Every structure is written in structure tokens, then in C-alpha cells.
Amino acid sequence: MTKQEKPEELILAEELINERKFVEALKIINDIEMKGDLTPTSQNKCIILKSDYFIGIGRYGDSLKLAEKAYKESQRLNNKKQSVESLLPLARSLLVLGELDKGFEKLEACKELFKTLTGKSKEIKRLDTRLNRMLGNFYGYKGDGRQALLYFKKALSLAQEIDDKSLICILYNSIGESYRKLGELNRALEFAECGLVLHEEYFIKANTMTLAYLLTTLIEICIEKSDLKEAQNYLQRLEQLNHREDNNIIDLFFRYFKMYTLFLSYFFKNSILTRQIFPR
């Protein structure tokens, strides 16, 4: 078998990860690695995709190890595009694991490397989208909601240019969550609902983590708008998703918000009762 710089199966695996179909993607990557006869660039791409896979399922420590390995190899290969691709999960893992300074350092390196990439292909624009989304995440972690919004909106514009509906859904949620944290609940609801509508139209049973994030954002927005009934409606949908999926993160989301809404329901009912018994 002739070595290929980027086998078709590897392209498919990357597309599946972009669509958040992580299990299917991992199977293809493992099959590719077992076949062997890959170029060093393709071997390193497998490591990068596995790092993205671990990000997707919430195993940030594992993602970090692979991303560091891939980044070193991309430097050895003098492959700037793969350096950018490996720095993105590396930075994301560091941010989630609480290493904000190190994460931002990697993001800055990623920004500088990205400037050296030429062309305006869909692949390059997608990297630009991911980079801006990651910068939005960083400023969100820092508590700078306005700056986070700027990056998220830039990322959304880029995602819309390449018609990447998976990323568009994610970014609608990110923008909605940012507005929620800023207290602009109507704007928050508008974006989160747009994400949910888009998800229902194009993904149905795919992109389950994106759906979980959208539902939890909507639950939080409704709670903060004192619309407990609508929050419970979204919670019911999260429960249905939890029953359908074997995913510890979704299960954790559901258990937390179920407990939270039960507490609020109890508190709300008792507040009404207290006012009835002890009117001012």
C-alpha cells in the first residue's frame, strides 16, 4: 500500500469529530493506526485527532498529554498547520484544568503561528473559527464577558461563512451563556434558542453534548428569568437525553439541575405559603 499524506479515512475521522461523533471517529483512527504505513504527518494527525476526541468526552488530562506530544512532533516536522491544530486542544485542556496563564501562553503562540498560514480554504477558516472560539473561552474563564462576546461573535461569523452548522450551534450557546453571565437575559435566550432550533433541524440524535450544553444554558436562563415552568420543560428534555445517552457528563448535568430546580420549586412554594400566613 502506498503511503498517503492524508488518507481518506483520516479526513472522515476529522469530519466526524467536527460533527461531535466521537465514538465513530475514534474507531476509524484506531483502524488507521493498526493498518500502519502512514507518513509521519498522518501519524501525528492521528494523535491530534485523538487529543480532540478526549476534549470532546471531557478527559482533559489525556487530551493534554497527546496535544503536547503532537505539538513537539509538529515542531520537529516543521508543520505549522499541525502546530496550530495541536496547540488548540493543548490550550483548551490547560484552561479547563485551571492553568489559565499557561493556557493563554499557548493561545498566544497559536495566534502567531496562525498568521503564518497561507490561503483561505475552508480548513484554514475552520481553524480560525476554533482559535477565536478558544479566545472567547479564555476571556470567559477570566470573567471578561464583553471581550469573550467579541471573540465568540467573530467565531460565529467565520463559522457561518463556511456553513459549519455544528460550530454554529456551539457558538450560539457560547454567546447565549456570555449574555446570561452579563445579565442580558433576553439576548441570552435569543441566541440559546437559535442554537436549539438549529440543532433540532440538522442533528436530531447527533451532537448530544452540544444539545446538553444548550439545554443547561436554557435552564439557567429561565431560572434567572424566574420562569421555573419553562426551566422544568427544558429539564425534562435533558432527562430524555440522559436516558438515551450513556454519558457521565450529561448525567451530571441532569442530576445537578434536577436537584436545583427541585430546591427552587420548594423554596418558591414555601415563599408563597409564608406570604399567605404572614401577610404584611
Q: Helices and strands in order, then pairings?
A:
Blueprint: H1 8-18, H2 22-35, H3 40-56, H4 60-77, H5 80-96, H6 100-115, H7 122-142, H8 145-161, H9 165-181, H10 185-202, H11 208-224, H12 228-244, H13 248-277
Write up this protein:
It is a single chain. This protein has 280 residues and is mainly alpha-helical. It has two domains: 1-118, Tetratricopeptide repeat domain (Serine Threonine Protein Phosphatase 5, Tetratricopeptide repeat, Alpha Horseshoe); 145-280, Tetratricopeptide repeat domain (Serine Threonine Protein Phosphatase 5, Tetratricopeptide repeat). The chain contains 13 helices and no strands. The termini are far apart. Residues 271-280 have low confidence and may be disordered.
CATH architecture descriptor text of the largest domain: Alpha Horseshoe
- Overall CATH class of the largest domain: Mainly Alpha
Q: Write out the CATH superfamily name of the largest domain.
A: Tetratricopeptide repeat domain
Question: Strand percentage, roughly?
Answer: under 5%
Short description:
The protein folds into 2 domains: 1-118, Tetratricopeptide repeat domain (Serine Threonine Protein Phosphatase 5, Tetratricopeptide repeat), CATH 1.25.40.10; 145-280, Serine Threonine Protein Phosphatase 5, Tetratricopeptide repeat.
